[in-house]
Amino acid sequence: MSRLQAEHLYKVFGRRPEDAVRQLQGGADRTELRADGTTAAVIDASIEVDEGQIFVVMGLSGSGKSTLLRMLNGLLEPTAGTVRFDGQDLTSLSGKELRRVRSEKISMVFQHFALFPHRSVLENAAYGLEVQGVPRAERERRATEALALTGLEGWEKSWPDELSGGMQQRVGLARALATDADLLLMDESFSALDPLIRRDMQDQLLELQKTLKKTIVFITHDLNEAMRLGDKIAVMRDGRIVQTGSAEDILVRPANDYVASFIQDVDRTKVLTAGAVMDEVGTVLGSTTDKGTKLGTAAEFRAAAPATVGVDTPLAELFVPCSTSTVPVAVTDAQGELVGAVPVAKLLAVLGEPGRPEPAAEAAAPATAAKGKVIAGA
Which PROSITE patterns does this entry report, sorted A to Z (predicted)? Predict the structure, then answer.
């Protein structure tokens, strides 16, 4: 079920922003507007985030992703468009009403920690609850629980400058979790961390999400981070969302040449799964192997296949079995039912050059993408 919807959002800075929106709607690009001293940061952006989903917005610096995030909780007022959370139009709220929603329902985790140096770790984690007016004993109890969730049990009385960068970011995450907000907005939250600490924080977020099942919008410029964390990913360029889909959709069916070039260095063996690239099982049933064995039934095919794997098996594990037989690898679902096959030619094709851009309608609903998923450890 969808919890957050942004529809046709525009954010224009400069003179006569409403006129600029009309020009953009009429086909103008932001280069033309810049000549008049107007900057179009976000152009006609629409997203839909389901309950319990990590929705990643990915793009290079200046693509508009952070501006989009700030419109989702009202830190920036859209020039045009609407934002709805649990059916409530946030763009129509008064300042007081919007502050209440931000205090109770939406938490934000910043890139640079944003901790108060004169407050202890516990006081920092409890700050959002203090703003809500929660009694001290209750907010300290909830903050202590949140710190334990993020691996900081025993550090409650420490000061921020006594913590490493990764630990400080955990305090920021604990502060967001302590309020029990329905929506977490994370703006480049791990990008200031060293690579190993960054990966540890990604692990932490994925582990917490298994239990808490928060609705999360995560902003990043790092493609590998997006592929690792995102249940759904939106790719932005020059203020526009140019493709939205799962990691499999984007890797196998890039919407245009820009997306194809953006993803060309991704190690697909660590991201794609057998279920994401498999052919339907009907393509092999009824065929004959090079040794004359007929594969008329599912049982005959599974007996001849060099291996049987689940839909979540990473492609890296298919190379050996594919190299030992001309028969495709069999793919089964969680119930052990045969659902597809991965022939060696398909495996090599997927791991070769990035796929050709496809029309958006085709890219939005691939026949097989729903059967696989991203491997969390990619």
Answer: ABC_TRANSPORTER_1 (PS00211), ABC_TRANSPORTER_2 (PS50893)
